[in-house]
Amino acid sequence: MDSILNICPATAKAVNDVAEVAGYLWQKGWAERNGGNITVNLSDSAADAARTLQPIAPPTPIGRTLPHIKGGIFFCKGTNKRMRDLARYPMDNGSVIRVSDDGTNYSIIADKPVKPTSEIISHLSIHNYLVGKGSNYRAVVHTHPIDLVAMSHNPAFLEKDLLGTLLWSMIPETRAFCPRGLGIAPYALPGSAELADATIAQLDEYDVVMWEKHGVCSVSENVGEAFDMIDTLSKSAQIYLTAKSMGFEPEGISPEKMEEMKRVFNL
To answer: Domain 145-267 belongs to what architecture?
Structure first.
């Protein structure tokens, strides 16, 4: 069978972008073994030929009904697959799936029967939420930034908007490039519907959500933007932790100056 990348240029572009970001996540040290996952909604760009591809594996129940993405097409990192391998061989370590017309299950349609990430219920639930609200966000990136996860082990940082505001104050770019801040999802079992729902509950206010003691989930128009927000927040966390390791509490940008920046740059 010819690769879906050869019959659908838009899909090839999206998969190449995923591979690029997967490499960044590995290089950052945020993707130990098979840690983290990426999904991209291809429904708007998939060629007609992709929509008619026959399943290459039996249908798999999602575990809930997702009406807004019924018939949708997604690229997903494979379960138990490594980001470093996804970066080099994306179609050997990920697959394209199609959600059923009733929104209750999915089937792998290309290129190989690589089972999607174990957190597929979280990812598809998030995509369902995004499409349902009319968002143009099509990418979901989950990874394990060391500094941000470390900070989530301090209960004080888990109060609403405390950590996000602190990170904003470390460097102006964080306020500019993560204007909605950082949401917090309490610890929940990885791969569970509970984690999916806790994440969605934060997405009304935030584009990036901390999964307590686990990692970060980011949503955006594309995988590059989703990565950039996590990368920027991580830089702020590094600045904070570096200052603390030098023996002082960083002063941070004042609320007045951050408000000025919000106003001037229309954030």
So the answer is: 3-Layer(aba) Sandwich (3.40)
